[in-house]
Amino acid sequence: MGFRDEAAGHFYKALKLRPDFPEAKENFYRVANWLVERWHFLMLNDHGRNHKYQLAIQKAIEGGCNTVLDIGTGTGILGMCAKMAGAAEVYVCELSKTMYELACEVLSANGMAESIQIVHMKSVDMEIPKDIPNRVSLVVTETVDAGLFGEGIIESLIHAWKHLLLPPPNTQEWLSNPSQTGRVIPAGATVFGVAVQCHEIRRHHRLCASTVGGLDLSPVGQIYSPVSCSADAEDSTEPYTTERLSCLHGGYIQLTQPFTALDIDFNNVQELEGLCSREMTLLRLHVNQEGILDALAVWFQLHLDQDNHLSTGPQEDTCWEQAIYPVQSPFNTVKCGDELLVEVSSKDTYLRLCCVAFVRDGHKFHLDNVNKGPPKILTTNSEADLCSALAGLQTNQEKPSYNFLLECSEIALLNNTTYHNSSQKAMSKLLASLKSTRSSQETDPAYVLDVSEGFSVLSMMAAQLGLDSGEDQQLSTGLVKAYSLVEKEHHRTMLRLLAKGNGVPESTLEFWLRQMEDDSAVLQRPASRKLWSAIMMDCIETCGLIRQKLLEKATLAKCLLEDGGQIFPERIVIHGMLVESDTLLRESAVQGTEPTLGFNIAPFINQFTVPVHMFLDLSNLECTHFSEPVELFTLDLMNSTANYTNKDVKLQVSTSGNVTAIPFWYQIHLDSELSVSTFSEDSHWKQAAVVLQQPLAVS
Ligand code: 44T
């Protein structure tokens, strides 16, 4: 519900009461991941970056800036740099409660609690003299994300120039008092971009297959990801995701030369204001490589001062990710010699890059802009939208066109053909076996329940299988009656459209409300003496962890199965291996015993170390393997009463070195023959890893 601090507090208490209680531990880790984002560790471990900021700050203070405000201080590091460099007055502000409290501890531990004044607020709410006594001569800040402006640096700096900073040199105010000038570190930035083809990006933002598990997907129309490049100012959606391009599975191909998208001077308030008010600029890019236009990738150079620069480029050896602006237009094959038209704008918090058209042989082809004009996107629970979509279904219009917004992970799920095709096979085997054991007079359909927590078409797939195998066509419901717990109204609409388009009668699929208070009530098919023929569960979360309460649910599900009925999957085998990975270490804790830029920070932020990493892409993790993958554990969903407390696994070490982590993933056994891995080419699941508290030397 968003009450993260409170949640963390309660889980922490629970953990204090019973340190080995696994649910409390897991929940605490999950919130700790939000409270202190993992990039804090990356940044503090990035000595190159820390050192350049330190040099720039020292130089500014030696050059006469002696009052300093650090906006978004995090652990307090830049503020402490300023104090050490000799600034007379240092103020720091931080809007996150957890980070503010952490910074207070760090300042005390470094003996600067008295000499640095810290406020828990957003810089744009600060006033003089309420929050700081006077205007300052230097603002330092690293409130930049992969897309540069996403943390609100433009708004913060406009406000700072108007209310918190001394005037810049060569202005009216300055002329009246030339000894007092203000400036900002970083002084400015240059933003670069490149158009790329990248399958890994594509499969998270657009549908790549026309059928999955035997279902024709075309009846749902266009599917879009929420990451949209619309240049509309009112649009508040995030226009980009982030990726480390150099680490993307399958790599990427540049379709253009890298180009400069924007140059911005943070010391020029008119320029900052101009950025927010001005219309977009149109860039023309020359395509020099034929390919599929999947995204624009964006990075930047941060000019701390004239001598010190930081780059977040894909070639750079840093912790930075690049901003990815996916191109979602259905027409997206570009050829050498084409010209791409890209709109660059920044009216709200975000820098937006939008591929609007390409020019080929003198003809201009517009790339569909998702958020402009019709067709309409169905994303909300708006009754009106849904009614009109369904009404469109009833009439025999030629080809009604709908747009649906799905999460990136939901799109990747639909693109996971292996998973759906295997599930279809497993289901069809079960239906065949049920049919052979049932008496011929029996007319009841097979009852199939899909308890997936997110979007799922498995119920539809089962319903369609019922039709295919049903020679007995007078049965209006087919041989399968499917129930889905899919909750979101637009998901349901999509399933209804799929049903209609795939010839599945409406009565064959039913939706159920998930009842919050009582799980057991959900699973009990009301008013029926019959039991479930199949219960389908999505056991693994996209992040790579097993769903909470999985075995409890499986136990319950088992009791509600008819004779010969089945839970899908029947079994999950957890695989893992021993590795050494510096990347994982750098993301989990401040490393080494050396103080960070001479400051004592590590012990404080490291309290938020979480030993389990989620959302990993193992196929691209830089690491040394010390063993083959081995089976660690089996969860038997058809016999969930087995005892799962502890197990030792012996494995053979293949190389000498220090084991620092154990990545793990799952083989999902749908039945005794069919299985899919969560660590495969088209997996929509990410992987996870346990990072050891101490490296383990092996030989
Ligand atoms: N992410 C970069 C770092 N704040 C962004 O609460 C870098 C992205 C990144 N406080 C991969 C790697 C990396 N007033 O604690 C945060 C935040 C705070 C403010 C007061 C304000 N106006 C603001 C704005 C932000 O500043 C801190 C840092 S901001 C984010 C840094 C390794 N992908």
Main pleated sheet = 7 strands, antiparallel
The fourth-level CATH homologous superfamily of the largest domain is Hnrnp arginine n-methyltransferase1
- The overall average pLDDT, rounded, is 88
N/C terminus separation: 47 Å
The number of distinct helices, counting runs of at least 4 residues, comes to 19
Provide the list of bound ligands, each named once.
Answer: ligand 44T
CATH topology of the largest domain: Hnrnp arginine n-methyltransferase1
Give the low-confidence spans. 371-381, 394-398, 473-477
Shape: globular
Task: Tell me the radius of gyration.
Answer: 28 Å
CATH architecture descriptor of the largest domain: Distorted Sandwich
Report the oligomer. single chain
| DSSP strand content | 25-35%
Instruction: Please give the share of residues in helix.
Output: 25-40%
DSSP E strands, number: 36
Structurally, the number of domains stands at: 5
Helix/strand/pairing category: alpha/beta
CATH class of the largest domain, named Mainly Beta
